[in-house]
Amino acid sequence: MSTQKVAIVTGAARGIGAATAQRLASDGMAVAVLDLNADSCQDTVDAITKAGGSAIAVGADVSDEAQVIDAVDTVTDKLGAPTVLVNNAGVLRDNLLFKMSVDDWDTVMGVHLRGAFLMSKTCQRHMVDAGWGRIVNLSSTSALGNRGQANYSAAKAGMQGFTKTLAIELGRFGVTANAIAPGFIQTDMTKATAERIGVPFDDFIKACADDTAVKIAGQPEDIANAVSFFAAEAARYVTGQVLYVAGKPMN
Ligand code: NAP
Questions:
Q1: 224 CB less than 6 Å from ligand 1?
Q2: How far apart are CA 152 and CA 218, in angstroms?
Q3: What number of other Cβ atoms are within 10 A of residue 249's Cβ?
């Protein structure tokens, strides 16, 4: 039986999830690259295998219970029991409160909160059985409030409470749970935000970098590095934390 750890990264076809999947693979884990459509995961899987790692593509909607159960079963069959889970899948449906539709509210809650709940609930059994596990949830600086994001900021604040509760419940089984709250990260998601507000992406990137203390536009790898820390054996005494990775102090 292989001792290689098995990780699932959701929303890993691109952006932060893709960089995280690659990072965990280079840390020595076998990685299930999970996204809505398995075909969209192929580039991430190819990048991992080309670098000598092992990965599979898995298609599932994290907000659908049956698909989540199927996906985790597939990972268990093909790679082994998953003991590292990164709840990264995410969507934006930004609008001012008075214009926000109930669908836009439900979709964002569904992917972020229901998705993280279903994935964590389904994977925790394997972690408890192994007496070891790592759950890393993607929050956001928007958890502190952000105009046009009543749905997203509520979901991302919810991820923080969810994380702390998992830490309390699962700690005795050797499982830690932590959250990472990124500031601006250069991905398709923030490109879409720039388009929505009518600002050229390069100008948006520059403005976001200027707004940090370090004067840098965050990259997916900046988040992947933080996930790698939380997922490591060495982070066993770190749990229930929210790490802001935003290039400036946040509170
Ligand atoms: P991204 O480039 O938009 O990637 C998100 C991925 O999640 C996409 O591949 C998307 O698939 C997938 N996804 C969406 N709904 C899904 C579902 N129901 N089931 C499975 N996969 C689903 O976003 P990102 O910028 O890398 O963000 C990753 C995470 O970090 C998100 O949770 C986001 O909220 C958070 N975050 C990002 C930033 C930032 O500045 N970029 C800042 C703070 C927090 P499709 O392409 O098929 O829709």
A1: no
A2: 20
A3: 7
The residue nearest atom 44 of ligand 1, judged by CA position, is 140
Residue 119 Cβ < 6 Å to ligand 1: no
Question: CA 37 to CA 179: how far, in whole Å?
Answer: 25
Per-residue pLDDT tens over the stretch 39-67? 999 999 999 999 999 999 999 999 999 99
Question: In the CATH scheme, what is the code of domain 6-184+219-245?
Answer: 3.40.50.720
Question: In angstroms, rounded to a whole number, what is the distance separating the alpha carbons of residues 88 and 18?
Answer: 10
- Residues (pLDDT < 50) of the chain are 1
| Cα torsion 75, 79, 84, 89: sign | negative
Distance (angstroms) between ligand 1 centre and the Cα of 7 equals 18
* Minimal-distance CA residue to ligand 1 atom 47: 36
Domain positions in the chain:
6-184+219-245
- Ligand 1 centre to CA of 11 (Å) is 6
pLDDT for 2: 64
What pLDDT score does 251 carry? 79
Interval 133-147: pLDDT, tens: 999 999 999 999 999
Q: How many A from CA of 224 to the centre of ligand 1?
A: 14
Residue numbers annotated as active site: 152
- Residue 193: CB atoms within 10 A of its CB come to 19
Inter-residue contact 223 to 17 (CB < 8 Å): no
Instruction: Please tell me the residue having the least CA distance from ligand 1 atom 45.
Output: 36
CA of 185 to the centre of ligand 1 (A): 11
Written as six digits, the tokens of 70 are 């199927």
